[in-house]
DNA sequence: ACATTAAATGCAAACGTTTGCATAAGTTTT
DNA sequence: AAAACTTATGCAAACGTTTGCATTTAATGT
């Protein structure tokens, strides 16, 4: 004989009040006198009343929970974004339900279908690599905010960094320390952010009257460490070797650094290396790697903020909004050519 | 005028059937004829019926969702565990709601309170560093499974690795390659897992007739890279320097490796280094670090599996269960003293 | 003293699904 | 052909909270 949970009605009976009064008292409704609120809350504590939030959600048609779709949780970037989302959501009394698309469109479709069943008040999503149309998101009745990998040619709320400008900044930093032959390890250009980084790289060269040499650009499928090693080795075989390498992420930057180091090139003297994303490894590896802080945590916070604002928006005038976060270049030893450092 | 969502009743009216029949048809109940099931499903698709899972949860008193409490999402270990949980839960049609305790007991208490309101069918938790009693978990009416940092002297379901045995294995590996003066960089012994690693280290020494030297053991608060550097530097100042170092995690292993390398010691010739957890960095850094695979992903899967089994358990005979996962030593260059490698 | 207003509480329906039990129709057994 | 099942469907209540509206009581104004 397991004991039933205490409900509003139990409290009402106990106190000879209407359930509605109890409900309002606990919700701190202004129409209820302070006196009754006090009694109710006291009795609630005494009987160990725990509100049934499912019943509440059901009645109010509001779950105060957000659905998050990420490619994979165990990628550091995404775990930081999720952390930012959770942090903001928690303070706003929302909770966060997570799904991994595993970069599969099929799975993304199924997740969206699950979320359709109305368990969340809003959705934050980073598109899977396979996603090339957004019909499934159109069907959703709740607001959606995309981050990082966002839909193109489709009106939606988004939180992104300015990859193009950031890539220019990074490339120009290499130029500013005297690099003339700057190489680039690129991600898959089918993904907009990697394309933007590539374009930024090219734009910086052009802007500074440096030629774009196609053998100084190497493409990867997924910017893995192993792919980075291959790319760097190809650079190493070139006649005119690069004196600076801008890598589209930090893993490939580590690869480049190690390959050139092993071939007895000095970093940054012979070749400077710059990465992207500020992964933990970038400040541990020797020499520490200059990189672009991609603001993952802040991106999560901004996305949650934007989404919750949209959920709670009274005036439904704004249909979509795009937030572009400012990145910053974190300059470390791998590009400190001209600077004598005496730090221990 | 926003359109209302299609409900079971709408379908029922449309088809001149009772809502109960619709409900059963969609749930594929055996009492419903195949013919009606067909009509119902067809009509459901036609009208775009999406079941309201909140209503269902409310009625069934079952949410098919799990609550996860982790210290921080952006710690690689935990993100791997979460990934394992999500993976298993997804296949079992559960979804996963995440909370970060930020290693704060207060926050853990509040999260438990939130989860109390019955939005989850079960909970997976890694205790916060501050947690020293488990009263708040006792109040929960749903099954709880702990992982990694688990309660002591308290009956509960747990998923852990055998830290003690793993530490013995790691230390004996150092001994097997000829190390005589083995140091240890330890975590905070207040945390059971770090204490177990320390004890395993000591046990291995004793078992192999090596003395336990207290200046060869350095303690850290949180096993950070920076702390690791400090510990390693202290080892470097010793008269009898270590010829092998067993570190309680990979970050401190990287520190040790770099500090000794910088001081012109060769790894592993002069000093061998072994880490713990198999972080990505361990196989990227030069030389790659021998480490203990802590099975984070599998730990998540096992926890989810155990929890869901407990949720769905018909016979409530088993009140708690502990799963100990087998670790494995991943041997890499940082301990390959006697082996000539010709790998490129 | 009576009308008006304000403050506090109660009533009852509603949210969309599920489920035990009843019922109707059809089938088999005797 | 009646009795006993089987099969398929319907009825109606229930889950616990919230909310618009009605009602009661108290307070204020004239």
UniProtKB/TrEMBL annotation, chains A, B:
Pfam families from the UniProt entry: LacI (PF00356), Peripla_BP_3 (PF13377)
Superkingdom of origin organism: Bacteria
Keyword Transport: no
This protein's UniProt keywords: DNA-binding, Transcription, Transcription regulation
InterPro entries documented for this protein: HTH_LacI (IPR000843), LacI/GalR-like_sensor (IPR046335), Lambda_DNA-bd_dom_sf (IPR010982), Peripla_BP_I (IPR028082)
Keyword Transcription regulation: yes
GO function term, MF aspect, one: DNA binding
Domain named HTH lacI-type: residues: 6-60
UniProt protein name: LacI family DNA-binding transcriptional regulator
Lineage: Bacteria, Pseudomonadati, Bacteroidota, Flavobacteriia, Flavobacteriales
């Amino acid at each position: 004989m397991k004991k039933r949970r205490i409900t509003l009605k139990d409290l009402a009976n106990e106190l000879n009040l209407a359930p509605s009064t109890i409900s309002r008292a606990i919700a701190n409704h202004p129409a209820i006198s302070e006196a009754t609120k006090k009694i109710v809350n006291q009795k609630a504590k005494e009987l160990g009343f725990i509100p049934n939030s499912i019943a509440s959600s059901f009645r109010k048609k509001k779950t105060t929970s957000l659905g998050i779709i990420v490619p994979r949780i165990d990628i550091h970037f995404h775990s930081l974004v999720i952390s930012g989302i959770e942090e903001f959501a928690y303070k706003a009394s929302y909770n966060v339900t997570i799904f991994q698309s595993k970069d599969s469109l099929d799975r993304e479709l199924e997740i969206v279908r699950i979320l359709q069943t109305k368990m969340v008040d809003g959705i934050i999503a980073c598109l899977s690599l396979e996603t090339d149309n957004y019909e499934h998101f159109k069907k959703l009745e709740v607001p959606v905010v995309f981050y990082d990998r966002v839909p193109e040619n489709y009106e939606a709320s988004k939180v992104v960094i300015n990859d193009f400008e950031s890539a220019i900044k990074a490339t120009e930093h290499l130029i500013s320390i005297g690099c003339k032959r700057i190489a680039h390890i690129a991600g898959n250009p089918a993904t907009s952010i990697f394309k933007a980084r590539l374009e930024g790289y090219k734009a910086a060269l052009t802007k500074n009257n440096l030629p774009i040499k196609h053998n100084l650009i190497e493409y990867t499928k997924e910017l893995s460490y192993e792919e980075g090693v291959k790319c760097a080795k190809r650079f190493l075989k070139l006649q005119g070797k690069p004196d600076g390498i801008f890598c589209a992420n930090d893993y490939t930057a580590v690869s480049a650094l190690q390959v050139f180091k092993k071939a007895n090139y000095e970093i940054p003297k012979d070749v400077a290396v710059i990465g992207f994303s500020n992964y933990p490894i970038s400040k541990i590896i020797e020499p520490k790697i200059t990189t672009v802080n991609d603001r993952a945590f802040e991106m999560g916070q901004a996305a949650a903020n934007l989404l919750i604002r949209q959920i709670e928006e009274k005036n439904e005038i704004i249909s979509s909004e795009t937030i572009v976060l400012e990145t910053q270049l974190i300059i470390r030893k791998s590009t400190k050519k001209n600077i004598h450092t005496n730090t221990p």
